[in-house]
Write a structure and sequence with these properties.
Blueprint lengths: L3 E4 L3 H13 L3 E7 L6 H5 L2 E6 L10 H11 L3 E3 L9 H10 L2 E2 L4 H8 L1 H10 L7 E2 L6 H11 L3 E5 L9 E3 L5 H16 L4 E5 L4 E10 L5 E13 L2 E7 L6 H17 L4 E10 L5 E7 L6 H8 L3 H9 L16 E8 L1 E2 L5 E2 L2 E2 L2 E3 L7 E5 L6 E2 L6 E9 L2 H14 L1 E3 L5 H9 L1 H4 L7 H4 L1 H4 L8 H25 L20 E8 L2 E10 L2 E6 L2 E9 L4 E6 L2 E10 L2 E6 L2 E8 L1 H10 L10 E6 L6 E2 L4 E7 L2 E6 L4 E6 L6 E2 L6 E3 L1
Parallel strand pairs: 1-2, 1-4, 2-3, 4-5
Antiparallel strand pairs: 6-9, 7-8, 7-9, 10-11, 10-13, 11-12, 12-15, 13-14, 15-22, 16-17, 18-21, 19-23, 20-22, 24-25, 24-31, 25-26, 26-27, 27-28, 28-29, 29-30, 30-31, 32-34, 32-37, 33-36, 34-35, 36-38
Helix pairs in contact: 4-5, 12-13
The structure holds adenosine-5'-diphosphate (ADP).
InterPro entries: ATP-grasp, ATP_grasp_subdomain_1, BC-like_N, Biotin_carboxylase_complex, Biotin_carboxylation_dom, Biotin_COase_C, Biotin_lipoyl, CPAse_ATP-bd
Protein name: Acetyl/propionyl/methylcrotonyl-CoA carboxylase subunit alpha
Organism: Parachitinimonas caeni
Length: 664
């Protein structure tokens, strides 16, 4: 076994690999970009080396530099994780040539599966079933159109070099084919520098079922059963489970053996996944592609087999035999994985970025696992995948596992950026999901139920918000009193008592475009809160770690409170509500004096500078355009005046809060 390995990756997968390495007594070397200098994976590793600036091509994709670090640090092997260099045959070959073990398949196996078309040709020879389609070398528009007509519509055009759903187009009618082909080719060329495509029959109600395979250097190959990854948005997975609901023993063996045959056909070694598309209408399954690396969703397989797949990878890479052979493997219970992303389900799942102002994860046990690369206070940057964490749960059957998933999701609290948490909760609670009515159209079909409008604060939420604010005000008074010389002064009393005055506090909150008022009357030991026409008798304690323990009309409940300058967020049982406390008397004055807007609201790239130094501008005149997370943001003049300076040029990267220009 190795004594020291380098992990050529970041985030949760780097942390995941380090965890197993530690268990096996292997020393670990991390690498990092400037954006990750303080990241969790860097802290967990025994040593860490800087790669370069944040952009992947200047850091995590620098194969030669990574190999050099492996040599310098004495690492005997490199684990590539997923993404980045994990399926780069040149990197695998460079490792082999340098005498550093690449923890993955031989370069030749990566090459064989690198092109979807070539992989299909190989699989055809190995008698693995393929979706009816065309994957030939002749790429003339005419021939592709004829093939599409022959296959019959709808068809799916895929980029041969594809991944991540890029360059994929559904064509419903022959007359639309030429236009969609041109568009698929453009996207493929832009993303993969290769416009080769293949055409497949588009299955209208398929499931995505994949088989985990493993092979060693001594000729053994096994399958570790299947994962169902049918719940997808934008053709990408978001919730996976194992085993696949409704799978029969005979079908499992058939698919497992087909996957092992696929692996054997290319001399595979290590962990791999053979993806199949399963036609729910006919029960037929077809080879889609093989991923020659560890998959994001591997933990569900670990949960149902009781095996550590990273340990298997390390053993196989150090030339040991597979820990178990086929007849020693069995499925126990059921597992789910929910991917928690910084993304906006209501806005077509567009990635989001931001600061994790508050992050609380469910209690980890043998049945609930959280794989994450971030901690509270970290940021999700625009440079990498916006996945925050993976939540994996196990139960003795699907129903028990799903119940555990629901409670664990409700215990997850994230404040500071837009996430898909509420969406995942709706998904886990949906009766059609509980009934395992699975196919890749699930999310689109149930969209309205899965993405409900954000909840409005009712009287109870407002009472909790008021208690949180009152507790904060009281704490500030307390701090003021302890600083004062005269502790006995009635002016510093924290009881809310005031001479000749009914102790009264008016609290105002904004939520979207609505405003709410809570009148709080201090009574001995509690508050009377008037909210609209409701009156609530309330009291509460705010702990130092931001948990409010409240009593509302005799009902006890607790809620997490996250207070940022302009925002009060309350999180309770998986629901979070963000309110903006404001003072109506100051609001008018503030609007007039509003400044700011000259700083970058988030990290991004300056794409256009619209104002010149010396220009006279009006309030609201656009000065610069910043692009972040595929969206453009206009930076406008906060007041009329003269442009004194513009500090950045198009193409330059800026971090959040950077001053971009100045208007005087
Ligand atoms: P990528 O490598 O870009 O992620 P895949 O080939 O793995 O693309 O396909 C991604 C998803 O697209 C699949 O999981 C499935 O939901 C859908 N898909 C792929 N091929 C077909 C097909 N022939 N018919 C219907 N859906 C398909």
């Amino acid at each position: 076994m190795f004594k020291k390995i380098l992990i050529a990756n970041r985030g949760e997968i780097a942390c995941r690999v380090i965890k197993t390495a530690k268990l096996l007594g292997i020393r670990t070397v991390a690498v990092y970009s400037d954006a990750d200098a303080d990241a969790r994976h860097v802290k967990l590793a025994d040593e860490a080396y800087r790669l370069g600036p944040a952009a992947p091509k200047e850091s995590y994709l620098k194969g030669e530099l990574i190999l050099d670090i492996a040599r310098r640090s004495g690492a005997q092997a490199i684990h590539p994780g997923y993404g980045f260099l994990s399926e780069n045959e040149d990197f695998a070959a460079a490792c082999e040539a340098a005498g550093v073990v690449f923890i993955g398949p031989p370069a030749s196996a990566i090459a064989a599966m690198g092109s979807k078309s070539a992989a299909k040709a190989l699989m055809e020879k190995a008698s693995v079933p393929l979706v009816p389609g065309y994957h030939g070398d002749d790429q003339s528009d005419d021939l592709l159109q004829r093939e599409a007509n022959r296959i019959g519509y709808p068809v799916l055009i895929k980029a041969s070099a594809g991944g991540g759903g890029k360059g994929m187009k559904i064509v419903e009618r022959a007359e639309d084919f030429a236009g969609q082909l041109a568009s698929a080719k453009r996207e493929a060329l832009a993303s993969f520098s290769d416009d080769k495509v293949l055409i497949e029959k588009y299955l209208t109600k398929p499931r995505h079922i994949e088989i985990q395979v493993f092979a060693d250097t001594q000729g053994h190959a096994v399958y570790l059963f299947e994962r169902d990854c049918s719940v997808q948005r934008r053709h990408q997975k978001v919730l996976e489970e194992a085993p696949a609901p409704g799978m029969t023993e005979a079908r499992r063996r058939e698919m497992g053996e087909a996957a092992v045959a696929a692996a054997k056909a290319i001399g595979y070694v290590g962990a791999g996944t053979v993806e199949f598309i399963f036609d729910t209408l006919t029960g037929a399954f077809y080879f889609m592609e093989m991923n020659t690396r560890l998959q994001v969703e591997h933990p569900v397989t670990e949960m149902i087999t009781g095996q550590d797949l990273v340990e298997w990878q390390l053993r196989v890479a150090s030339k040991q035999r597979l820990p178990l052979l086929q007849d020693e493997l069995a499925i126990r219970g059921h597992a789910f994985e929910a991917r928690i992303y910084a993304e906006d389900p209501a806005n077509d799942f567009l990635p989001a970025i931001g600061h994790l102002a508050h992050l609380k994860t469910p209690q980890e046990t043998a049945l609930v696992r959280v794989d994450s690369g971030v901690v509270s206070g970290d940021s999700i940057s625009p440079y990498y995948d916006p996945m925050i964490a993976k939540l994996i749960v196990w139960g003795e059957n699907r129903e028990a596992a799903l119940a555990r998933l629901r409670t664990a999701l409700a215990d997850y609290e994230i404040v500071g950026l837009t996430t898909n948490l509420a969406f995942l909760q709706q998904l886990a609670a949906h009766p059609a999901f509980a009934a395992a009515e699975l196919d890749t159209g699930f999310i689109a079909r149930h969209r309205d139920a899965l993405i409900p409008p954000p909840p409005e604060p009712d009287a109870e939420w407002l009472a909790l918000a008021a208690l949180a604010e009152l507790a904060r005000i009281e704490r500030e008074r307390e701090a003021c009193r302890s600083r004062s010389n005269d502790a006995e002064s009635p002016w510093h009393a924290t009881t809310g008592w005031r001479l000749n005055q009914d102790s009264r506090n008016a609290l105002h909150f904004r939520h979207g475009d609505k405003e709410y008022a809570v009148m709080a009357y201090f009574r001995r030991g509690h508050y009377q809160l008037d909210i609209g026409d409701r009156q609530i008798i309330a009291s509460g304690d705010l702990s130092v770690d931001g948990r409010l323990y409240a009593d509302l009309d005799g009902r006890r409940l607790s809620v997490s409170v996250v207070r940022r300058p302009d925002c009060l967020t309350l999180v309770r049982e998986g629901t979070s509500i963000a309110l903006e406390p404001f003072n109506p008397l100051l609001a008018g004055l503030q609007a007039e004096a509003e400044t700011g807007g000259l700083t970058a609201p988030m990290p991004g790239t300056v794409v256009a500078v619209l104002a010149q130094v010396g220009d006279t501008v009006e309030i609201g005149s656009p000065l610069l355009i910043l692009e972040a997370m595929k969206m453009e943001h206009t930076i406008a003049a906060p007041a009329a005046g003269k442009v004194e300076a513009v500090y950045y040029q198009p193409g330059e990267q800026v971090s959040a809060g950077t001053v971009l220009a100045s208007v005087v």
